[in-house]
């Protein structure tokens, strides 16, 4: 499957909302039960990009959005500003074709370039495919929370994974540059 990666834009919001809607209704990556509206997805997109976090779209040869990935704050307390959480969502027809791997690799590059030092993955349903994807990208399992979500008639576990970016924790960050200014 041929695709290219580019910055996501407001024009992508309807397709982003469709992909996320399918994931909410049929998957366990998100613990939301009711899919948010397109307007809500636009607000979420704006909140992320206004803080200069990367938001990436994977576009197929036909111009259709195949998936998207973004980084956002893991927590909003100031000491966490060097840590980002990744999120990746794919259209059903794009799964298992290397698009998630490409999106995650690009997200890691962009977050490292921005100066972030750690990336966390919070994997809903402890999805084996998502765990394998993150492990391939250098993430380590750092914790499993059992029975943290209830969706589709069953209890779901949540896997936490982590990966160092750039110099990780080996040096002090520079608080005068982004993300220190967050």
From TrEMBL:
InterPro entries in alphabetical order = Acyl_CoA_acyltransferase, GNAT_dom
Domain N-acetyltransferase: where? 3-166
Listed GO MF terms = acyltransferase activity, transferring groups other than amino-acyl groups
The entry's keywords: Transferase
Transferase keyword on record: yes
Domain of life the protein comes from: Bacteria
What CDD domains would the database entry show? NAT_SF
Q: Which SUPFAM superfamilies match?
A: Acyl-CoA N-acyltransferases (Nat)
Stored PANTHER family: ACYLTRANSFERASE FABY-RELATED, N-ACETYLTRANSFERASE
Q: What is this protein called?
A: N-acetyltransferase
Q: Which organism is it from?
A: Rhizobium sophorae
């Amino acid at each position: 499957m041929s695709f290219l990666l580019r910055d996501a834009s407001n024009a992508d919001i309807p397709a982003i909302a469709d992909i996320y809607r399918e994931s909410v209704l049929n998957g366990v990556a998100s613990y939301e039960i009711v899919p948010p509206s397109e307007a809500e997805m636009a607000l979420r997109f704006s909140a992320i990009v206004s803080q200069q976090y990367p938001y990436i779209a994977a576009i197929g040869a036909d111009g259709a959005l195949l998936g998207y990935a973004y980084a956002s704050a893991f927590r909003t307390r100031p000491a966490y500003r060097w840590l980002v959480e990744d999120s990746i969502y794919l259209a059903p027809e794009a799964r298992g074709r290397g698009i998630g791997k490409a999106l995650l690799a690009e997200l890691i590059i962009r977050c490292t370039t921005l100066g972030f030092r750690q990336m966390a993955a919070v994997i809903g349903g402890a999805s084996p495919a998502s765990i394998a994807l993150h492990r391939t990208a250098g993430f380590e399992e750092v914790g499993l929370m059992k029975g943290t979500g209830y969706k589709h008639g069953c209890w779901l576990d949540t896997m936490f994974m982590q990966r160092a970016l750039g110099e990780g924790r080996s040096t002090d960050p520079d608080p005068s540059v982004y993300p220190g200014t967050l």
